[in-house]
Amino acid sequence: MHRVRDDAGEWLATKGTDQYRGGLDVAQVHANIDRDFDAHEFVGWQVGGQVVAMLAIIAPEADFWTPEELAEAQTYISRFFVTEHGRGYGTALLGAVEGRARQEGMRWLRLNCWSTNTRLHGYYRAHGYMHVRTCDVPGRPSGALFEKDLSAFSLERR
Ligand SMILES: CC(C)(COP(=O)(O)OP(=O)(O)OC[C@H]1O[C@@H](n2cnc3c(N)ncnc32)[C@H](O)[C@@H]1OP(=O)(O)O)[C@@H](O)C(=O)NCCC(=O)NCCS
Predict the structure, then answer these.
(1) Predicted local distance difference test score (pLDDT) of residue 37
(2) pLDDT tens column, 108-151
(3) Pocket-forming residues, ligand 1, beta carbon under 6 Å
(4) 2-157 belongs to which homologous superfamily?
(5) With contact defined as beta carbons under 8 Å apart, do 52 and 45 qualify?
């Protein structure tokens, strides 16, 4: 997980975004990942016995969401990474997580992501997510909130 996050930082540096730049040093980033690893479920997508995409399923964050939103039935994802781009590995994992969330009766799939990275926002939009709002919380540059209405989407697909 540490390695994949480090690689993502290097990849993003070539993408014209300030995502993951400034702020936390590497040791703190790794410590935060360790904390999440102890506290939450991580799921992965495997190809040929190798984990090629991963994400954490965490509790929605009260910094960003209203009490009403926090109370809704949802799956909340974080720490979403692939080991290789352009293969659809992330899309495959996201689809599997959405499928499981639907089976569990969740209404929403939600996440927060880097506030200024419009290409990343475009990725989520292309996968059926709607921008809810962007929160300006000091020290939290990942304040762009996205959600997918799983009930609406499953009706649409029938
Ligand atoms: C987000 C992610 C898991 C999706 O994986 P995937 O479904 O396999 O998709 P890809 O990695 O092939 O990316 C698909 C497209 O989205 C773009 N994209 C994805 N994440 C991006 C980001 N953070 N910033 C800019 N562009 C991004 C890619 O450049 C690619 O664009 P292209 O089709 O024009 O080449 C993966 O892109 C990733 O690890 N990104 C870096 C870490 C990250 O930003 N995670 C999300 C945190 S909320």
Answers:
(1) 94
(2) 999 999 999 999 999 999 999 999 999 999 989 999 999 999 99
(3) 8, 12, 15, 17, 19, 80-82, 85-91, 111, 113, 117, 119-120, 123
(4) Gcn5-related N-acetyltransferase (GNAT) (3.40.630.30)
(5) yes
Q: Return d(Cα 117, Cα 61) in angstroms, integer.
A: 20
Cα–Cα distance for residue pair 12/8, rounded to 1 Å: 6
CA distance 103 to 123: 24
Distance between Cα 56 and ligand 1 center (Å): 16
The whole model's pTM is what?
0.95
The whole-number pLDDT of residue 155 equals: 53
- Are 56 and 79 in contact, with CB atoms under 8 Å apart? yes
Q: What are the domain boundaries of the chain?
A: 2-157
pLDDT at 157 over 80: no
Task: Note the residue count of the chain.
Answer: 158
